[in-house]
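Thread: Newbie trying to understand structure tokens

Hi all, I'm a second-year student working on a class project, and my supervisor (Dr. K.) asked me to get a predicted structure for one chain before our next meeting. I've only ever worked with sequences, so writing a 3D structure as a token string is new to me. If someone could post the tokens and maybe explain what I'm looking at, I'd be very grateful. Here's the chain:
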Amino acid sequence: MSTSTNRRVNKSRTVAPRLIFVLLTSVCLTVHAASPVREPGETISYLGKDRAEKMDAYLPDKTRHPGLRPAVVVIHGGGWAIGTKSGTREKDVCSTLARAGYAAFSIDYTLLHYEGKPWESRLIKQAWPENLHDCSDAIRYLRKNYKSLSVDPERIAVLGGSAGGHLALLVAFAPESLKQRERPLDGLAGVSSAVSCVISLYGIHDLRQFGGAYFPRDSIGQASPVTYFSKSGPPTLIIHGDRDTVVKPSVATDMAEKLKAAGAAHELLWVSGAGHSFDLHPPEMNVEPVVLDFLKRHLK
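---
Reply by user tm_fold:
Sure, no problem. This is what the structure looks like when written as tokens:
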């Protein structure tokens, strides 16, 4: 398979990281401050009223963006153990998307439960595979309730950061059989959780490289997105800081190589000088234009 260095590329292409860097910096020679974040317009019990995990909706202005809008589900990070839908990064991402005309939905999901301090005390309860089921049901909920939410059920993307990037990649590539509960939630049986594209911010594709200690040992392969990479998967945008000391840059490099080997459409953007856990407006580089361009191309 040939590798293209043209921004206007077909489904099976890879965009050279250096080219994306040049294109981005050519339009962002100075750091652009993010616009003020907004609060969600509505909090939704997408998993049922008995669940503590909710979904925050950031909806575009109906007068400027009428009709059914493309949607993006945003999955927070936090090592599968901490984090919230209302985090600073999630508010920045969702506010940015809503201003651009996308209906953005930030979700909470099942987390690891420790006896004391996360990662340092005894693990009481695993999160897998409930965390994946929750994230997948967020897609199903939007598709089921698209009319009341003014969401286009054929134009849904998923975005996640760090551990959220791992779950976003699973939502994008794993088969429905893995993403579905034994007993589907009311009204969601048979509803697809497929997405049109996925954005991974410093996410993890292979738990053998990072994160395997937080999953059942016999589920490492099953819970690794790389297991399911294929040509038929949705286009993927990888964004990673080249000074990330948590999820090392080699993880992003390997992810891009594995996607290429599978024939999957993907792009890799290096944020020069950035570490781990940034939003769409890190001081090193404004990545908002690349994210919005990617979504525009794949949520037409």
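A couple of things are worth pointing out once you decode it. Confidence is low (pLDDT under 50) at residues 1-33. The first helix runs from residue 17 to 27. Feel free to ask follow-ups in this thread.
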